Amino acid sequence: MAGSVFIARRAGTAWSYALLILVALIFLIPIVFMVMSSFKPDQQLLSDSGSIRAFLPVGDLSLQNYVGAFERVPVALFVFNSVFVTAVTVVLSLLVCSLAGFSLAFLNWFGRDTVLAVIIATLIVPFETIAIPLLLMVAKLPWISTHGFEVGWLNTYHVQIIPWVADGLTVFLFVQYFRDLPRDLLEAARIDGASWWQVYRMVIMPLSGPVLATAAILKCLAMYNQYLWPLMVTQAEAYRPLMVGLQYFFQLNIAWGQVMAYLCIVSVPIIVLYLVLQRAFITSIASTGIKG
Amino acid sequence: MASPAILLILIFLIVPFVLAFGLSFTNQRLLSPNPTEFVGMRNFEQLLGMGVLKLEPLPAPDEQVEGSDPEYPPLRNFTRNNPDYPHLNGMREWFSIPWGQDRVFVLAQDVLFIKALVNTVLFVAIVAPLQGGLALLLALMINQKLPGINIFRTIYFLPVVISIVVVSLLFRFIYDGNNGLLNTLLGYASFGAFKPVDWLGRTDTALAAIIGASIWQAVGFHMVIWLSGLQTIPVSLYEAADIDGATHLQKFRYVTWPGLRNTAVLILIVITIQAFSVFAQINLMTRGGPLDSTQTLVFQVVARGYEKQDIAGGSAISVLMFVFVLCISLAQRYLTRSKD
Question: Which residue of B has its CA nearest to A44?
């Protein structure tokens, strides 16, 4: 009796694993295919994709596609642009949005609740609906640089950074997190004569590790994987990020091996980052959903 | 302390948003010789104008073969400056359906926009429940207490970190009509009985193929949100259900699902907003084709507002899109409100 229950449970577990593995294959197959194909010459890539060989490192493997991709696209420049834009935006965003979150969560000022409501309401505005007017606007905004006074932000780094520094979701994440912190800590510091700025810097920020990680990861993913905006604002090669570089491969003859190599160059850094920090990645996404 | 963020959100989000509304009432074009004018609702009338026309077949010529399709008078007789049909002026055929002996023609001022609208609504209506449901299934699978389950969680979430741009290009290859992986795999699974399909090249499969790729990329994201919802349900409730002898299905129905109500609303709204903005997949996989079967609103916003520099037209579509998103979010909120 006890034995048959045990066997039934074992069988149930086996089914669970079978299902889990089957679903895992659905997610892994395209990625494995991408990585394997990036090492194969075009002809073999095409003939292999008709069989199981598509997922195996077999045949004529080389780094030739990577060499070709580097020749066609200024990869190093685009990697730099992507990483630079992403990193600067993430840092500025954490600073600006945490300050806003602090003020909206702890300080009392006229219109605070209205401002917070408007900031939350912006969450339902898809970026695509404001892309065109924003483009018109940034084309006419002034900027002061080492070259003096300029009009128009197109083809620069800051046009890719500044519009993305503050966003409703990040501010909201900070507000939500700060409201759950114990208020007595803050009041104790105020009684000791700390300014609000000092409270922010010395009391709140040291406690904000989790929310900073969440905001940083979400921003990093969004920025690194961005497509429409950089496509519109970077006509000049010097400022293009990695994603826009994909266009270079779709001229007359598509060299699929090189495309696969480029897709790997684009994706592998973020995949590695994810695998290293996966617990943080998953907790961050989860924390966006908790209160709804 | 909040001012930098407020200022930035104001300049880069709220001002363009207001500007989109403003521009949608003008005839602004980039590099136009004419000054911009206020044109009222004209852009919206242009986009949304529709008409219906019922036509009788032309008297069949005597030698016509029995059973061949009847001929109808050309539509342009009615839509080109016909004083009897002023409301149909400038419209073109969207589709037609047989109506007894006659045929009903549904006309639209801007057929391309209407097609884009229908496709987008279809995309949202399929993706929101399907992706939300699949994500819940995955979350339930991952929520089992099995050794090594975290490995599967890591794998299921993996596509989320990959850009939709990369995913689109990868799936272009997977969906290829000749050597595509999907055809190969289906061929194996059916022992060669499956005939290869050019998934992105056919009007009846292209949108479905794009939906498949989109869900593959994004489902892990919502799985994790479901998972965090699942983990807020107290274990004691399940223990109580076990004592009462509840089945798996009953436990889901009476314990799990009620506990996920808020998560469900959130996920539905998030997916709806994301699905409404579908662009990169379209731009990289089909560019709206074949025969406009994958045109979407944002693709049209970019095609008009950016590529054709018809700022006002693009803005008008943006405004309509925002109104749809707002209505659907409010409706979902209302329909899924808690009953107490």
Answer: B179
Say if B313 is an interface residue toward chain A (CB within 8 Å). Answer: no
Tell me what the mean pLDDT of segment B12-19 comes to: 86
pLDDT of residue A171: 92
Residue B228 touches chain A, beta carbons under 8 Å = yes
C-alpha B3/C-alpha A97 separation (Å) is 10
Q: What is the pLDDT of residue A236?
A: 83
Q: What is the pLDDT of residues A29-61, one digit of tens each?
A: 899 989 988 898 888 877 777 677 777 777 778
Rounded to a whole number of angstroms, the distance from the CA of B92 to the nearest CA of chain A is: 27
**A276 Cβ under 8 Å from any chain B Cβ:** no
Domain ranges of chain B: 50-108, 112-335
Whether residue A132 and residue B263 make contact (CB cut-off 8 A), yes or no, is no
CATH number of B112-335: 1.10.3720.10
Q: Are B172 and A49 in contact (CB under 8 A)?
A: no
pLDDT at B302 over 50: yes
Does the distance separating the beta carbons of A289 and B228 come in below 8 Å? Answer: yes
Q: Which CATH class is domain A73-249?
A: mainly alpha
Report yes or no on whether pTM surpasses 0.95. no
> Do B16 and A51 make contact, defined as CB atoms within 8 angstroms?
no
Contact call for B146 and A13, based on CB within 8 A: yes
The residue with greater pLDDT, A20 or B2, is A20
For the cut 80, the answer to whether the pLDDT of residue B60 exceeds it is no
Res. B99: pLDDT tops 80? no
What is the complex's ipTM, to 2 decimals?
0.84
Interface of B with A in 266-285 (CB under 8 A): 266-267, 269, 273, 276-277, 279-280, 284
CA distance A56 to chain B (A): 13
- For chains A and B, CB pairs below 8 A equal 250
Inter-chain touch A282–B157, beta carbons under 8 Å = yes
Work out the average pLDDT over A242-252: 80
Within 67-96 of A, beta carbons closer than 8 Å to B belong to 96
pLDDT, tens digit (0-9, with 9 covering 90-100), for B223-249: 988 988 888 888 888 888 888 888 888
Q: Which residues of B fall within a CB distance of 8 Å from A204?
A: none
Q: Which of A281-290, B2-11, B262-271, B291-300 is the least confident region?
A: A281-290
Nearest-CB residue to B311 (from A19, A132, A164) = A132
Among candidates B8, B30, B263 on the partner chain, residue whose Cβ is nearest the Cβ of A289: B263
Domain parsing of chain A, residue ranges: 2-66, 73-249
Predicted confidence (pLDDT) at residue B275 exceeds the cutoff of 80: yes
Tell me: the pLDDT tens digits for B175-220? Answer: 887 777 888 888 888 777 777 888 888 888 899 999 999 999 999 9
